[in-house]
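Lab meeting prep.
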Amino acid sequence: MKMDKYSKGLIAAIFGVILITGCNQPAQKEPAAQAQPPAVQPAQSDELKPARIIEISPDAPQIVMEKSSVDFGRVGPGSVHKALYDFKNTGKQTLEISNIQSTCGCSQPTLIKDGQRFPAPLQQPVAFEQGQAGQVEVTFTSPAVKGPVVKHLYVISNDPLNPRLEFEIKADVTVLVEVSPEAAELRFDRPNAGMPELTVKSLDGKELAIKSITIPNNVMKIPFDPQKKATSIVLKPEVDVKLLDTYSTGAIQIITDHPQSGTLLVRYTALPYVEVNRPRIILQNVEPGVPVMKDVLIRSNYDKPLEIASAQSKSGYMEIVDQQKQDNHLSLMIKITPPAQTSSARRYITDELTISLKSGEQVTIRCSGWFKL
């Protein structure tokens, strides 16, 4: 088992917003006997120069959209809807729309001018004179999974104030079939890893049948009869513990023949036998041949003693120089010795240390860094 499979997570994107504020502090009065040295004037640089102000002509084209959001409210899974967004060029110069962008294939935009339709992506810019109006039509297909949905789209034009006009679609996908439980926390010290039975139930009284069940990496089997119809069906998963040990997280997808079933999801996660508190080591400004020491803790989640059977460094830079038992955990000291630089162009080093435990588990500790300039 490689612990990186447990440490991976959905990585969220972070957008920073820097607010620059100025504050005039009142000067403090110093005693006359204490002469102050002359202030050092900073050298002129680009950082001290005032920002260049871009002047926009009052006659410039300007796109104004009457409404920037359409909310379809509660919709069924996989249902198709259309939204219209009216806009006008309120500027004095010609507005040229070069494209309409969608962030999802479920939202297909079309530009409309005088009844003529231009599906996105546009083959060439479409011009709108002063006061001329147009529309953006969006065909929206709702997702198969229940829950709120927000999709963003953009009108790309030569409007200098708003060259990327944003608008959106909202909906709340509602299904008439439920599965319970919708999440399962599994453990290897329980029969069948503690995986519960699953109940698929119709919410409107209509009978349904299971059409398909998809399980990532086949970590379990769920027998079902596609011919059996009922308002409630109980499923009994059979877990493959060895595969679950390798693929510890996932989501079961269940599809029924109910017209408003959508895709039912059951998310599961298994607590691994062991975990590493530092699966990746980042080094900065290392020097060739100068060792770096890093401590790593291997933790047992099931209160079982841990013993190392072997350790193998892929590139030969990493080695275990000390280990201490703490209850059923292992505290390791790892020495990383950067190699000689064969050329000045080589700036980075990478290695990984695979540790095999006597219990049969494996953990991997990866290392990456760069040389000091």
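Slide two material, second protein:
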Amino acid sequence: MSGPLNGLRVFDLTRILAGPTCTQILGDLGADVIKVEQPGTGDDTRRFAPPFIRDEKGEETSESAYFSSSNRNKRSITIDLTKPEGQTLARRLIEKSDILVENFKFGGLDKYGLSYDKLKDDFPGLVYCSITGFGHTGPYAPRPGYDVLIQAMGGFMSITGEPEGEPQKAGIPVADLMAGMYAAVSINAALRHREVTGEGQHIDIGMLDTMTATLSILGLNYLTTGETPKRLGNAHPNIVPYQAFATADGNMVLAAANDAQFERFCAFAGAPELTSDPDFNSNEQRVKNRDRLIEKLAAIIAEKPTQHWIEGLEKVNVTCGPINTIDQVFADPQVKARGMDLEMDHPLTGDNPLHLIASPIKMSKTSPEYRHAPPLLGQHTGEVLKELLDMSAEEIQALHDKGVV
């Protein structure tokens, strides 16, 4: 292994998506991720199906596509944390770990003796990351948090959708994914702090916080003006034209992000008069006169097919492109060239490789490596207990017989 986190170990007490997204990033970067699951049931997302992954005959297996999306580069072990023996076993494994990531409800690990406060004195170098809906402080801390709730409460839904339509969530669980990414970034920063000082620390990631941070330019538009942003559909709040348009045979996106691009677009479209119109000759004016300009542009663009616009505008360096369906994304030559459709061997798929979405991280020296397919429940329990704790087969079997693992 040559990943930048090679040699570091993660004790992974996460499930569903935000936490597993974080630990998959760490695993892709070389960390040894030990995913701890409840015996017999495991991560809830193992049952978030259909679809299930398929074997070499094309038949459904017992593993969900959902679980596979965020659990590669991990080794699965089972421990019943409700049993005292399970809690003792967990602490022994934490002693061998650099990082602990958990997304239990606030206070949920305290009763097992595995909260940060219960561990920090015994393991002062441990980087302990908690991911919850609302963080560990504030009036909402005890509440559970789910992606759609956080998108709603964090304002994301209020700015997503057509102006006259209903508020919309994103088509992907953006609140979970962003929380996982912020957590992974924070863990790497905490590791650097530990490298310098020798001290571990607690990281408190609240999904409502990360969703609020994700408001980005629209959040700043509000804080700057005091005016609540409205839904704009596919349009941009600060740049015009920057949205989808209907063509003669489909749809496309046009993103003329500056005055020079707008001028080149108008020249290609045969409408140079728009650039000399004082209502449209600068981005500031185009934003102020958005509705009139978009009406004119929509009529022009609708006269020609999508390929006419894409081929012609690319030649004059104006940003545009098709609105791809997901099958078209994975068929796109650029996506193929970047290796985003990742194939891995899996114990249930035989000669039929498991298709996963590769990490987007590209590094010249320490790019991600793909060592483990998403694991079966408890697949590595014996392996990990023998490797890390030097337990014998008889000791492991005794724990299994008691229902501890």
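Talking points for slide two:
Residues 242-324 form a domain with the formyl-coa transferase, domain 3 fold (CATH 3.30.1540.10).
The CA atoms of residues 120 and 126 lie 7 Å apart.
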